[in-house]
Amino acid sequence: MGKRKGYEIPVFSLFFCYDTSNVMKEKAPRNRTLTLEESEIPLLKNELLSLKKLRSAREENPVPLETFLNKTICADVMEALPLLPDEFADLIIIDPPYNLTKNFGGKVFNARSEQAYDDYLASWFPLVCKKLKKSGSLYICGDWKCTSSLQRAVQKELTILNRITWQREKGRGASSNWKNAMEDIWFAVKNPADYYFDVEAVKMKRRVIAPYKENGVPKDWEEGETGNFRLTYPSNFWDDISIPFWSMPENTDHPTQKSEKLYAKLILASSKSGDVVFDPFLGSGTASVVAKKLGRAFVGVELSEEYCLYAQKRLHCAETDKTIQGYSDGVFWERNTLAEQRKSTSSISH
Fold first, then answer.
1. Cβ atoms within 10 Å of 320's Cβ, excluding its own
2. Quick check: helix, strand or coil at residue 221?
3. Apex CA 159: angle with CA 154 and CA 161, to 5°?
4. pLDDT at 61 (0 to 100)
5. Cβ-proximal residues to 142 (8 Å cutoff; 6+ apart), any chain
6. Dihedral sign from CA coordinates of 306, 310, 315, 316
7. pLDDT by residue (tens digit) across 90-100?
8. Percent of the chain, pLDDT > 70?
9. Out of 224-233, 275-284, 323-332, least confident range
10. Which residue from 122, 135, 268, 137 is spatially nearest to 200, judged by alpha carbons?
């Protein structure tokens, strides 16, 4: 067993982190979408934390943190939340069902009126906020249609500090409307006078289009073998995110999967090494996987067993692969700079 910050983290070596059956499934040669092999499923299932296991641990009230730390809880969030102690999480990241009709692994979430969606958020969001430490931070994702509902729900419980808008760059065009290529993330805290935020950890590395020199020396930018780049402080508009797609090893069949790079920004900015990151709508596991790669503890709740299994397999892969596409050398690179990133990493290693 490997250990970090006093928490036991299992080391895995029995799982294929990339699909090994391309020919059988007639996939394109570069398709790296994660799949589950039949031989892996029983072992992955055994690692999930069920409601039964969680309830049995509740003989100690509240449930000890070590019971569910670094675990994937396969359960309905409304049944799991009462079993978890209050104020255990340093950071909460939420990617709930948007107000759209969407099939999540056979479980369909139906679009509803704005008031009904407000009521839906009210049924669980205040309970999630109770799990946040007094000095903790929370991020919640949404699209244009539900973002006003999210704002109303969040400001009833927390203090909103900002709204991040990020460019999604995926999806089909609309013939009678503007293509939906943007999403929001609301950033909020319990106490605006006491919360953690590390802006140095989330700097952007961008190409310098018009390099300026002072006395022949680059001013506020670096001139190197990989090109001319400048380190900049991040804004609340992100145009450097690539949605997971078939050639990326982090990709799964989850219909609304968030990228590891997106969550890495949230985790690095709003948590410290060893902090606990909680995701009550874990999906295919991005929050837990990125937390693990970045040296944080994690807790995730997900209703779909299939998505829980994806999360577990990705956690296995994170034991040996800590890379996050678009994040290297301690900075976030703008899009379409993979060649420069590789050169930079190579020069540092030598």
1. 10
2. coil
3. 100
4. 72
5. 96, 98, 149, 150, 183, 184, 185, 186
6. positive
7. 999 999 999 99
8. 76
9. 224-233
10. 268
Amino acid type, 288: S
Report residue 339 as tokens: 């060649």
How many residues make up the chain in this entry?
Answer: 350
Query: Is there a contact between 257 and 286 (Cβ–Cβ < 8 Å)?
Result: yes
Strands 327-328 and 331-333: antiparallel
Three-class secondary structure of residue 291 per DSSP:
helix
Q: Over 50: is that where the pLDDT of 3 sits?
A: no
Minimal CA–CA distance to 84: which of 299, 254, 286? 299
Nearest in space to 159 (alpha carbons), one of 197, 190, 194: 190
> pLDDT (tens digit, 9 = 90+) per residue, 29-39?
666 677 888 89
Which structure tokens are listed for 330?
Answer: 């301690």
Residue 196, amino acid: Y
- DSSP 8-state symbol, 310: H
Identity of the amino acid at 231 = L
Q: DSSP characters for 93-155? A: EE-PPPSS-EEETTEEEPP--HHHHHHHHHHHHHHHHTTEEEEEEEEEEE-TTTHHHHHHHHH
How far apart are alpha carbons 201 and 98 in whole angstroms? 30
